[in-house]
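ingest -> validate -> predict -> emit
validate: passed (alphabet ok, no gaps, 118 aa)
predict: started
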Amino acid sequence: QVQLVQSGGGLVPPGGSLTLSCEGSGTIFTIMAMGWYRQAPGQQRELVAEISAIGATTYADSVKGRFTISRANFTNTVTLQMNTLKPDDTAVYYCHAGWGTPANPAYWGQGTQVSVSP
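emit:
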């Protein structure tokens, strides 16, 4: 059974930091791109950051310079370090894995709430 299990998230004030992690199991994630989408209430799901199988990274313009994505292939884990968080970053964040550039998600995590509020 293929799974992506997320951890992290929560409530922070503006300017704060959070780390999201996602661990995959059940298939060979090292040959896939992995990353994060988010969906705010009433909004479409949008790509936040993605890292390819060879480590190339892509970021949404709104998070460049504030978020950093990394992966550890020996643990099938992708991590999103989020700094200088803004209220507009409030959303449910979903880990994904798939093929292509950008990846066509084949697998999704369960979702994690990130809330940025005073």
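DSSP finds no helices and eleven strands in the chain.
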